[in-house]
């Protein structure tokens, strides 16, 4: 089992709590790093801002990335992840409520590994997050560092 952390980039506190609950319910024990905006996510990934001064933090097993974020939106975060050699192959799953076709196209064009629309129903949301965690942590074969 992949024991690396999960980076959850989500600004909605309710969706953060639902995701955390889904991970607990599915017995995934990976640490979850929460970033409530795009700048904080990039600070974590690149060891800048509050994460500077030492070795960069361990790269996560997967980034679960919302699109509608304060300070720096999800597509810009994805663009910066793919532009850096250290994070270029990092699995990034867009998890968003956006129904915009252009967001879907732009996400895949920028290198998203998957694009998942958040279900509105509470139980469906829990199931979707559980399945995402199980796939990316248990079944996916990551590129070795």
Description:
- The chain has a five-stranded parallel β-sheet with strand order 2-1-3-4-5.
- The protein starts with 5 loop residues before the first strand and ends in a 6-residue tail after the last helix.
- By secondary structure, it is α/β, with parallel strands linked by helices.
- It has helices spanning about 15-25, 40-45, 75-85, 100-110, 120-140, and strands at about 5-10, 30-35, 60-65, 90-95, 115.
- β3, α3 and β4 (about 90-95) form a beta-alpha-beta unit.
Q: What is the general shape? A: globular
Average residue pLDDT = 87
Largest sheet: 5 strands, parallel
- Poorly predicted parts: none
Strand order of the largest sheet: 2-1-3-4-5
Compute the number of helices.
5
Q: Distance between the terminal alpha carbons, to the nearest Å? A: 16 Å
Strand content: 5-15%
| Structural class computed from helices and strand pairing | alpha/beta
Counted beta strands: 5
> H/E order of the elements?
EHEHEHEHEH
What is Rg? 14 Å
Helix content: 40-55%
Features:
145 residues, alpha/beta, 5-stranded parallel sheet, 5 helices
Detail the topology: elements first, then pairings.
Elements: E1 6-9, H1 13-25, E2 32-35, H2 38-46, E3 62-65, H3 74-83, E4 92-96, H4 101-109, E5 114-117, H5 122-139
Parallel strand pairs: 1-2, 1-3, 3-4, 4-5
């Amino acid at each position: 089992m992949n024991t690396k952390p999960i980076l959850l980039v989500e600004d909605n506190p309710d969706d953060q709590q639902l995701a955390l609950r889904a991970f607990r319910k599915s017995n995934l024990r990976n640490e979850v790093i929460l970033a409530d905006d795009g700048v904080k996510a990039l600070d974590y990934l690149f060891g800048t801002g509050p994460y500077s001064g030492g070795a960069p933090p361990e790269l996560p097993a997967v980034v679960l990335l919302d699109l509608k974020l304060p300070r720096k939106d999800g597509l810009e975060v994805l663009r910066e992840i793919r532009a850096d050699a250290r994070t270029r192959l990092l699995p990034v799953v867009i998890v968003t409520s956006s129904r915009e076709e252009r967001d879907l196209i732009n996400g895949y064009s920028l290198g998203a590994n998957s694009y998942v629309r958040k279900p509105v129903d509470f139980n469906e949301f829990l199931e979707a997050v559980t399945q995402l965690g199980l796939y990316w942590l248990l079944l996916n074969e990551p590129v070795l560092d």
